[in-house]
Amino acid sequence: MSLYFEDIRIGESNAIGAHTFTREGIIAFAVLYDPQPFHLSEEGGRASIYGSLIASGWHTASVCMRLIIDSRARTRATHAALGEPLPRLGVSPGFRDMRWPAPVRAGDTVAYSSRIESMRETKRPQWGMVTGRHTGLNQHGAEVFAFTSIVLWERRPG
Amino acid sequence: MDLLYFEDFPPGEIIQFGDMEVSAARIIAFAEQFDPQPFHLDEAAARETMAGGLIASGWHTAAMLMRMSCDHFLNRSASQGSPGIAEVNWLKPVRPGDRLSVRRTTTSARPSKSKPELGIVDFSFEVLNQLGEVTMNQKNIMLIKRRPAGEGATA
């Protein structure tokens, strides 16, 4: 996985990590942020077009964010151990085209990966802009999540 | 209460709703679980970053928009969910003590061609802070059932 903007290559793909969605986790997220009946209980799920409890799409997205952070932290730790300088972490101005093509149910394991789509310079000489398509597949190989991230990435000094 | 159906979301309608105070504790709790970056976790560490102070994760702001939408209209609507989000833009940071509300614009509404019982509604959501500044905007489609024949309008 890449460190500085200059280390990134268009088309490069990376596994980010996987997460198993539990009934308790799905409900805990929904109680705080997405209290729709099909996210709150099995009964509510059965009464909906989904047929069972399903995770909030924002839960699926937030877990992806967590796994991206963890993956990046592992890369940074590897380079730090070698005594290499680390880039500052960039912020994101937003994202595009988020999709939830199939529901995530209790017990499902979603494996997330990313692919770099484009890179460009910005008005700020220290920061480049990187877009990447992130996808999540369940244990049956079905796509349950995708979005295109836009992130500022620090350029290698000098 | 009567359900809100497709017919209750006319194109051009603009409404404002919600009042959610954002505490440092909630910003940090969300970040610890889902977005553990220095500018979301700790005020002192955040001052050393581009953010200049503690700011909410953008995913947290999106989740708070979802919550305000559920509380205000989704949970009393015949919504059948959303196939996805066209775009989200994080325009201004959300900081501890901010009070958020939502401005919802219905940009278009049309009956589904393939499923006559459904309507397709395009919304533009703006999350405003207490100064009226747009901190985040979001564009997405929602599928909402059409009012069954024989049921009167709620308005």
What attributes does this structure have?
heterodimer, A: 158 residues, alpha+beta, Thiol Ester Dehydrase, Chain A, 5-stranded antiparallel β-sheet, 32% strand, B: 155 residues, 5 strands, elongated
Q: Topology, please?
A:
The complex is a heterodimer of chains A (158) and B (155).
Chain A: E1 13-20, H1 23-33, H2 37-40, H3 42-46, H4 57-81, E2 94-99, E3 109-121, E4 127-137, E5 143-154
Antiparallel strand pairs in A: 1-3, 2-5, 3-4, 4-5
Chain B: E1 14-21, H1 24-34, H2 38-41, H3 43-47, H4 58-72, E2 84-90, E3 99-111, E4 118-128, E5 134-145
**Secondary structural class of chain A:** alpha+beta
| Rg from Cα of chain A | 18 Å
Tell me which oligomeric state these chains represent: heterodimer
Helical amount of chain B: 10-25%
Biggest interface, chains and residues, is: A-B, 30 and 33 residues
Mean of pLDDT of chain B: 94
Write down the overall geometry of chain B: elongated
Query: What's the shape of chain A?
Result: elongated
The largest pleated sheet of chain A is described as: 5 strands, antiparallel
What's a quick, concise take on this entry?
The complex is a heterodimer of chains A (158) and B (155). Chain A is an alpha+beta fold. In chain A, 28% of the residues lie in helices and 32% in strands.
Tell me what the structure shows.
The complex is a heterodimer of chains A (158) and B (155). Chain A has 158 residues and is α+β, with helices and mostly antiparallel strands. Chain A contains 4 helices and 5 strands, in the order βααααββββ. Chain A has helices at residues 23-33, 37-40, 42-46, 57-81; strands at residues 13-20, 94-99, 109-121, 127-137, 143-154. In chain A, β3 (109-121) and β4 form a beta hairpin. Chain B has one domain: Thiol Ester Dehydrase, Chain A. Chain B is 23% helix and 33% strand. Chain B has a 5-stranded antiparallel β-sheet with strand order 1-3-4-5-2, with helices on one face. In chain B, β4 and β5 form a beta hairpin. Chain B is elongated, with a radius of gyration of 18 Å. The mean pLDDT of chain B is 94. The chains are: A alpha+beta (158), B alpha+beta (155).
